[in-house]
Amino acid sequence: MNTRQAFQMAKTLTGNAPRPSTPISPEQGHQLNIFCNRFDADDYTEECRRQLDALPLLDPNDPAPFSEEDVRRQLRRCKPGKAPGSDGILARVLKTCATELSAIIHSLFCEVYYQCKIPIPWKTAIIIPVPKKP
Predict the structure, then answer these.
(1) How sure is the predictor about 88, in pLDDT bands with cuts at 50, 70 and 90?
(2) Please, what sign has the CA dihedral across residues 47, 49, 50, 51?
(3) What pTM was computed for the model?
(4) How many CB atoms lie within 10 A of CB 39?
(5) Which of 121, 132, 133, 134 is the most buried (most CB within 10 A)?
(6) Domain definitions of the chain by residue range
């Protein structure tokens, strides 16, 4: 079962389906329970550790799978109207200064890649809900 199927079944069960649909069979209900139970566990530490241990070790002598040119190209693709992140750096600055910043950012990305640790600030986001107009 994929996410779309699970969402459609959940909408059918709650009566929020846009058009009348066929009832959910007991087997489909069982599959939906299995799908949703994957998200009930609070502690994924053991599962994460097992998957991380199965990954091959990185060799610092191997080149990173992205080049400085890749970083420069992505910086140039930044949309200037986007809001800045928690660091306050505007997308317009990243785009305009792509040539100057690409070497520094590439170096930073390589360091993160080889250490296999994503900095905590990179895992946070600022979310501002924008209500729809009535």
Answers:
(1) confident
(2) positive
(3) 0.55
(4) 6
(5) 121
(6) 3-40, 68-123
